[in-house]
Design goal:
alpha/beta; binds guanosine-5'-triphosphate; 9 strands; transferase; binds magnesium ion; Spore Coat Polysaccharide Biosynthesis Protein SpsA, Chain A; about 190 residues; about 20% helix; 4 helices
């Protein structure tokens, strides 16, 4: 069956090849509200017809998700995005990490609804108007651009797409952007 609706040409991607050095143990496997942070990141992307985990082979298993190893291991999220765009079918990639466990399907669908022809990225703005490149949409039309940036030594994810081709949308629920870098960033039971 060919998927239709906003998710039809979307690949869900969770990048999980980081070192968790500030967290002190593998934060992808840290449990919060009964599920691992990795599962929290994957869940709101379940409607994407293709779902990729950018991570070392054999480290994680999430039902319905395909592990795709980094092509530049240890080089950070920008390099992971390159691996994702190269592995994804032509279209959009909904790209995030394991350290944003509060993202929701509503969050992603607000970004998907903001796509227009010619855009290469759609990014949320938090309550301080800061773009969120680690919880954003990227188009596979960025492949050659990204490879060029990485080959030149660039590693900043926020520079993945040319500014003129990025659309920014205010996020309705800034709480969903809580970023987990240390165990103290995981709030207690609600
Ligand atoms: N595939 C891949 N993912 C990465 C890489 N570096 C970071 N990430 C992921 O990007 C997301 C955000 O990265 P950070 O918060 O810096 O995570 P981290 O590198 O594990 O943590 P620190 O060592 O504390 O900086 C997390 O989901 C990481 O797993 C990498 O080289 N490859
Ligand atoms: Mg982080």
């Amino acid at each position: 069956m060919t998927p239709t609706g906003p998710w039809a040409d979307v690949t869900g991607v969770v990048t999980a090849g980081g070192r968790s050095s500030r967290f002190g143990s593998d934060k992808a496997l840290a449990v919060w509200e009964g599920r691992t942070l990795l599962e929290h990141a994957c869940a709101p992307l379940a409607l994407a017809p293709t779902r990729l985990l950018i991570a070392p082979a054999g480290r994680y298993h999430v039902p319905g998700w395909t592990v795709t190893p980094d092509t530049r291991p240890g080089e950070g999220p920008l390099a992971a995005l390159e691996a994702a765009l190269n592995a994804a079918p032509d279209g959009w990639v909904a790209f995030t990490g394991v350290d944003l466990p509060g993202l929701t399907r509503t969050y992603w669908e607000a970004l998907l609804a903001a796509r227009t022809p010619g855009l290469l990225s759609v990014q949320a703005l938090d309550d301080l108007n800061r773009p969120q490149p680690l919880a954003a949409l990227y188009h596979t039309g960025l492949r050659a651009h990204l490879t060029g940036l990485l080959d030149q030594g660039e590693r900043r994810l926020r520079l993945a797409a040319p500014t003129a081709r990025v659309r920014h949308v205010p996020v309705t629920d800034p709480d969903c952007l809580r970023n987990v870098n240390t165990p103290a960033d995981l709030p207690g039971p609600r």
